[in-house]
Amino acid sequence: IRYLTSGESHGQTLIAIVEGMPSNLKINIDNINNELNKRQKGYGRGKRMEIEKDKVNILSGVRGNITIGSPIAIEIKNKDFENWKNYMDPIGDIEVESRKVTKARPGHADLVGAFKYDFEDIRNVLERSSARETAIRVAVGALCKEFLSIFDIKFTSHVICIGEDEVENTYKFEDIIENVDKSEVRCVDEFYEERFIENIRKAKENGDSLGGIFEVRIKNVPIGIGSYVHYDKKLDSNLALELMSIQGIKGIEFGLGFKLGKLSGSKVQDEIYYSQSRGIYRQTNNLGGIEGGMSTGEEIVVRCVMKPIPTLYTPLNSVDINTLENYKASIERSDNCAVPAASVVAENVCAFVIAKFMMHKFGSDNISDIISNYKNYLERLKSR
Ligand code: EPS
């Protein structure tokens, strides 16, 4: 399975073509729209989210809610395009000057993008580099979640740090999935939830922005997805690629992550046990459910750090890319903090990777072959 996306932040529409989805999968479009809705939320989001009501439109590859194995084309229309038609229309005369951006925002793709692609107008860069593109990636991931639900593979995510505060407790998968959607900052710890909101509020008051850390958890991935045999077959390397590609992500860790560097081996490795009722199991999950690039059958635990959003309402020093004069950076409408939204994006890009590896292992033509291959595999493992 693979996909491509296309679309500008204030263009007509965001598009993806998903190739390789098996036939005879029943799609519930409400589930996909629910993920899109979750991505739009979060304390700290800007005014754009008041304009958009993201909904997916499936254009091909599905008949009467059932996939037919052909490429699936999906789109999310940008409502805001109505306000941008004069500046963004692909064909015909457009007005460029009044929406021209020339003072690069430090931390954004603006400066290097404009030099690399030879633009006098940074708008050509920011329209595509904007995190608006994550909406369509969520739709792709949500489609993959439909496939994965057959195997009861579940995802959740929560925010554990915004600004200087970080959640200390660890939470169970069930606690997170049941409570996280009730929180404006996707934090299940009530004490830190308030702190995060306060941190964002203060940053906003100062014309500043904040980043943070979130955690994605994936449950019921069978043992042996991914492989140790080659660098591009490793489950963790593929997850890292997808997660790093989310706008603003600067670091990733699995399990105990960077803490592993300070611990000795005896404190780190997840000891192996067997009982008749549970089969082979671990009592700890310090490595986050992946060993040697393969799923261990334990929960997959991955955390990402997102940098603060580069658009600052109290802008930093920059230059005009055309005159090279010193200026304060341009201000584009933006969010003050998008870490809660990024956690939803991350869940869904992980769903794409897990779906890809499930298909590598069990096939990808049609659902019934995949299910029998899956069952045979589990039987074989049980009979050891
Ligand atoms: C986003 C839509 C954008 C930004 C944000 C993400 O809308 P607009 O630019 O019209 O306000 O709010 O993008 C950025 C933060 C960025 O730096 O590009 C969305 O749909 O998520």
Give me some keywords for this one.
384 residues; alpha+beta; Chorismate synthase, AroC fold; 5-stranded antiparallel sheet; 4-stranded antiparallel sheet
Descriptive account of the structure:
The protein has about 375 residues and is of the alpha+beta class. The chain has one domain (about 1-380): Chorismate synthase AroC (Chorismate synthase, AroC fold), CATH 3.60.150.10. It is built from 12 helices and 17 strands. It has helices spanning about 30-40, 50, 80-90, 110-115, 125-130, 135-150, 175-180, 190-205, 235-245, 265-270, 340-360, 365-380; strands at about 1-5, 15-20, 55-60, 60-65, 65, 70-75, 155-160, 165, 210-220, 250-255, 270-275, 280, 290, 295, 300-305, 315-320, 325-330. The protein has a 5-stranded antiparallel β-sheet with strand order 8-7-9-15-10. Helix 1 crosses helix 6 (about 135-150). The protein is globular, with a radius of gyration of 22 Å. The model has no long low-confidence stretch (mean pLDDT about 95). Bound molecules: ligand EPS. Ligand EPS binds near residues 48 and 311. This reaction introduces a second double bond into the aromatic ring system. Belongs to the chorismate synthase family. Pathway: Metabolic intermediate biosynthesis; chorismate biosynthesis; chorismate from D-erythrose 4-phosphate and phosphoenolpyruvate: step 7/7.
